[in-house]
Write a structure and sequence with these properties.
By secondary structure, the protein is an alpha/beta fold. It has 16 helices and 35 strands.
Length: 702
């Protein structure tokens, strides 16, 4: 079983086991976990085979929005990533054809019921950081709020985040782990009985009569709100390269769902494509789960994510290849290797620079697209609609929380509960929280106050919105160098060696130098969030500097387990001349890639539409023939016609048009489907065997 048995942050709880079968073989799972996670835990990564060419299919989005993980469960075709395992469930792979039921007969039912319609003050779509924050502010005014989310628990992507967040302690829980922020936000809305939370509730469409269709536990409802807030978050972008359709190629959200939510060790050796915060953070999460991160590739000259996230990987021994791109993925039935190459000024691979690494998973983290379809539908229907979080603009979760608060203020004013406009300083704070990284300072320019016998050393050299260390210092000796939380911290005053700044720092970018016992060979304390047995007292390790370069070897002198923070503080004795340079421990040796002597592969066979397996070559051919309307392209190739409703390929099709030199104004985009996801006919008829067991007006949270 590929289960995570130990984790430096997450608690491993006992769970009830159940038996189920896949393709006739009996397997074990945990009751209620998703089929996809149960299959991965049993070492199964190929779920089905495509009807067009028999290509193996596996997990891709793990978010219920594509159809890559479809299987047959108890005679019905379902998405494995959003369907829980039950005792005795029989799961089978799809083998090139749809299945109605095991006996080949379609069941006819006539127990139709009237669809229930619900009037509500405010409907909030999405129980992530922005939706929860919005609902909380609305609850203060006793508004009748219905908050819905398609997952089995509130928190959105926060429930996948084991790292500590940046931003402001006062405004967005900076210095707190994402999983804990999710819990805090969910607990906050329980304070107001007027807020009702529906989990496992899928919004399927917004209609012209100003009603919103929602399916919960197989039962269909029509919600008619006075105000509608879209906080649906974002979906991950994908990337075009040969082999991108192999099982083992998927996004960071899917990976974090397996590893951090379901505690499944999804792979052994992973390679990451994309140097934004999502890719950098996912790499760190992989290491915490005991997975080898073979490398990370970023096409730009530098990573776009926070430097402290990048530094955490470099310092542990993960090679980061900037100015490089992925050339192809290879494998018979799933990923076995990845080839990368340096790029020229047009981001095209340079022949002769190829490097190949043996891996079993490629994580694609190349940005996000907002889930804003419902907002567009609501505007077309002249609804009283508002938007916040990533659905409005892609940013950090800290910004999403504040964005939700602003949306709530707009709703309250619109409904007549308040008369004031949103305060300007709220927008100022939001703009700071969603700021891109600012200036990066050389180590030599950092001010370091080493007059004391014990003092902190700051290794965060980039301007990002963050202030936990300032807030937590009991002596108020840490201050920001500028007027906003974008400024880097500086120390001046007294330090008592309490470690509070060290353990709260989201970037693991603070060390403590202690010369009280030995000024010539002081103790340097560094933060550590990985497997504890790797750094036990007395073990010899390699220490690295700000740039991830080896400085010296040293023995572990002490290990302090800060259980409340899930952080270990490791002490090393080092010469005074280098004590301020030591920042971390290198865990891994960098691997030498295999030499690749082949030709750069043609990308014509690259799969663009995963649902219908339409290739880049097919699309290029039609563009050259004059096709500019994506709807025409869809009719000719079936691109965008599959189960995901073009959620995955739409942005790729537009990018291909642009790459082929087509001006944006000459392109006709795909017509969006009226329904967001596939929905059983029985739900629309009020005929369902999945009637809710709980009172639908009650709160259902963690």
């Amino acid at each position: 079983m590929k289960r995570i048995k130990k984790h430096p942050v997450l608690e491993i709880k006992e769970r009830k086991e159940v038996k189920f079968s896949f393709d006739g073989k009996e397997l074990t799972a945990f009751d209620g976990e998703m089929i996809s996670s149960a299959l991965f835990a049993n070492g199964i990564r190929i779920f089905s085979y495509h009807k067009k060419d028999g290509a193996p299919q596996g997990i891709f989005c793990a978010n219920g929005q594509c159809g890559q993980c479809s299987v047959i469960a108890d005679g019905k075709t379902v998405k494995a990533c959003v369907t829980p395992v039950k005792e005795g469930m029989q799961v089978k792979p799809l083998r090139g054809k749809a299945v109605l039921c095991d006996d080949g007969k379609l069941e006819i039912r006539n127990d139709f019921e009237k669809i229930e319609e619900i009037d509500i003050d405010v409907l909030v779509l999405g129980a992530g950081p922005s939706g929860l924050s919005c609902a909380f502010e609305l609850g203060k005014f006793n508004l009748d709020v219905l908050l819905i989310d398609d997952k089995d628990r509130p928190g959105g992507k926060l429930v996948l985040q084991t790292h500590k967040f940046f931003g402001s302690v006062e405004d967005c829980y900076a210095g707190t782990r994402g999983i804990d922020i999710a819990y805090k936000l969910a607990e906050d809305i329980k304070k107001y009985p007027s807020i009702k939370l529906w989990t496992s509730a899928v919004c399927i469409g917004v209609f012209s009569d100003k009603k919103v269709g929602v399916v919960k536990n197989g039962v269909y409802y029509l919600i008619k709100p006075k105000a509608f807030v879209v906080a649906a978050g974002a979906r991950e972008k994908t990337l075009m390269f040969p082999g991108n359709d192999l099982p083992g190629v998927y996004g960071a959200g899917a990976f974090q769902t397996l590893v951090n939510r379901d505690l499944v060790k999804a792979c052994e050796r992973i390679f990451i494509v994309g140097g934004g915060n999502v890719g950098l953070i996912a790499g760190y999460h992989a290491i915490q789960a005991g997975i080898k991160v073979v490398g990370l590739v970023e096409a730009a000259p530098s990573c776009g994510g926070y430097k402290v996230h990048e530094d955490k990987l470099r310092r542990l021994g993960v090679p980061i290849f900037t100015g490089h791109t992925i050339v192809k993925a290879e494998g018979r039935d799933s990923v076995e290797s990845v080839t990368i190459a340096a790029v020229d000024e047009k981001f095209s691979p340079i022949k002769g620079t190829e490097k190949t690494f043996k891996v079993d998973t490629i994580l694609v983290a190349v940005g996000l697209n907002p889930v804003n379809e419902f907002y567009s539908q609501a505007i077309e229907s002249s609804m009283n609609v508002f938007i916040c979080g990533d659905a409005q603009e892609i940013a950090e979760a800290s910004a999403a929380m504040f964005s939700g608060k602003i949306a709530a203020h707009k709703v309250l004013k619109n409904l007549g509960f308040i008369t004031s406009e949103v305060p300007k300083f709220w927008f100022d704070k939001l703009n700071i929280l969603k700021s891109r990284p600012g200036k990066t300072f050389p180590v030599e320019e950092l001010k370091r106050d080493s007059k004391n016998k014990v003092y902190p050393v700051f290794h965060c050299r980039q301007e990002i919105p963050c202030n936990p260390c300032v807030t937590v210092c009991p002596k108020k000796s840490i201050k920001l160098s500028g007027d906003t939380i974008m400024s880097i911290p500086e120390f001046s005053g007294e330090c008592i060696g309490c470690f509070k700044c060290l353990v709260i720092c989201p970037g693991l970018a603070i060390t403590i130098v202690d010369k009280r016992k030995d000024e010539m060979n002081p103790i340097v304390y560094v933060p550590y969030e990985n497997e504890g047995t790797l750094l036990e007292k007395g073990r010899k390790v390699i220490l690295v500097d700000d740039y991830g370069k080896d400085i010296c070897e040293s023995n572990v002198e002490s290990v302090l387990n800060m259980k409340a923070e899930n952080v270990r503080v490791i002490g090393f004795s080092v010469p005074a001349s280098i004590c301020e340079k030591v920042v971390s421990v290198r865990l891994f040796d960098i691997e030498n890639p295999d030499k690749w002597d082949g030709e750069l592969p043609s990308d014509d066979g690259t799969i663009i539409c995963r649902c219908e397996r339409v290739t880049l070559g097919e699309i290029r051919k039609l563009i050259k023939q004059g096709v500019r309307d994506l709807n025409q392209l869809k009719a000719l190739t079936r691109a965008g016609m599959g189960a995901c409703g073009s959620k995955t390929c739409n942005s790729l099709l537009l990018a291909i048009m642009k790459r082929e030199g087509i001006e944006p104004q000459k392109i006709t985009d795909l017509t969006k489907r009226p329904l967001f996801v596939e929905t059983e006919f029985a739900a629309f008829a009020g005929s369902s065997d999945k009637k809710e067991k709980e009172d639908k007006t009650s709160f259902s949270g963690f």
